[in-house]
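User: I'm curious whether this sequence folds into something compact or stays loose and floppy. Could you predict its structure so I can see for myself?
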Amino acid sequence: MGPGAALTMAAKQAEELRKHGNTYFGKNRFGAAIDAYTEAITLCPNVPVYWTNRALCHRKRNDWAKVEEDCRKAIQLDSNSFKAHYMLGLALLQKDNLSEGVKELQKALDLGRGAGPKGYMVEEIWQELAKSKYKEWEQASTKRSWELQNLKEACENALKEKHFLDDFQTEGFLDETFASHVKQLEDLGQVFEKAAEDDTPTEVPDYLCCKITLDIFRDPVITPSGISYERAVILDHLQKVGKFDPVTREPLDPSQLIPNLAIKEAVQAYLDKHGWAYKMELN
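Assistant: Here's the prediction. I'll summarize afterward.
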């Protein structure tokens, strides 16, 4: 048997093992599935799906160190494996590595959106990303609030000390000095109140929300009439209701939908600034 024939046979055996692994996984026999995928990897170590399948089994067992290891290997083999980026992101979050975990989830979301009209697992990835970015913002917000409070107290103490010295030097407490002191403290309070505004949750602007769901855009597309919709929602409308724009009632075909990159960037900028702090309905 020549080298080529041996490789072909190994590939066929590996595929059979993958199928066995899938069967075991469907029956929640994760240990047996891991063994099958491991044998497939031994035969054909350069097939990324074997690594992501095994990583999914490790995820079911909450063995996050092995999830991370298998996903990193899968990404080495295929940098566009959104399943690998997604599970790697989850594994990093388990280690409280928020910044890197968020990056991986964002990469998975971008790749998942390109996997089809609705994108495989896009909603699940979006929800995990939302929760992670909120946690990331919450930590940063707490730190900023603490720093602002300390700075405010230091400034107030400095003002009080200054006015005490002024009063002591003039050997009296003048009304205008007291009024000036009060005004400076009020101004100082307003400055710090303004500085804290970015850490206060706000309502999502209407232009960042789909006109059908009224929820913030995940994957916005724009129609020839200039109206933007959530991709999955408008596609569902076109399939089940009819091929027309639900607002303008003009004829509309799925091929006419174009990604609205401007709105997508605006949503990202809003979420980055406000830490995903708006009230999201997460299932």
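Summary: Residues 277-283 have pLDDT under 50 and may be disordered. The two ends are 55 Å apart (CA to CA).
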